[in-house]
Amino acid sequence: MAKGVPNKPKGKMSAYAFFVQTCHEEHKMKNPEVPVNFAGFSKKCSERRKTMSSKEKGKFDEMAKADKVRYDREMKDYGPAKGGGGGDDDDEDPNAPNQSPSGFFLFCSEFRPKIKSTNPGLSIGDVAKKLGEMWNNLSDEEQQLYNNKAAKLKEKYEKDVADYKSKGRVDDAKRAAAKATTAAQEKEDEEEEDDDK
Questions:
Q1: Which pTM was predicted?
Q2: Maximum CA pair distance of the chain?
Q3: What's the CA gap between 8 and 77, in Å, rounded?
Q4: Do 130 and 122 contact (CB within 8 A), yes or no?
Q5: Cβ atoms 160, 97 nearer than 8 A
Q6: Tell me: the pLDDT tens digits for 56-71?
Q7: SS3 assignment, position 81
Q8: Which terminus in the chain has less CB density within 10 A, N or C?
Q9: Average pLDDT of the residues of the chain
Q10: Which position has the higher pLDDT, 108 or 196?
Q11: How many CA atoms lie within 13 A of 167 on its CB side?
Q12: Residue 170: what pLDDT?
């Protein structure tokens, strides 16, 4: 199973990975107490593989092919590979209110364009790092200005969410009532048709 993702199949191994694994197992059998220095061990494995015949390498190629078959079979049964991260974003209502930003986020949205215009060559990560440094260098009073704006936006967001949720329930109630009315009307129409016959 892959790390962090429940029930995800273990990844497929290459022929070289099987070769290194075999070398590691041989090393552990011969020298159980000697720890492995991976950089040096990897270099020795690479040199050893270069001297191997095609027949010897073929054994590891077969192991990799068999593992690929196993991996493909398990992935077919696994499922959630398509569609990206597998989050709940698909279920989100586009009409739902957007989450309110934090004070730091408001600060960033104000200063990011300034940093990008004065330093056009900076990467996204470097801009974020610079913004973090600038935020940390602000006094508590200066940070509080942004946090107060964020608190007001959060209040508005919470009110919008409450309105959104109550509107959704009202809409659901209206929809249910309309459906019941339609069903009653259809039943009445059917009864009238039966009476006419």
A1: 0.42
A2: 97
A3: 10
A4: yes
A5: yes
A6: 889 989 999 999 998 8
A7: coil
A8: C
A9: 81
A10: 108
A11: 9
A12: 44
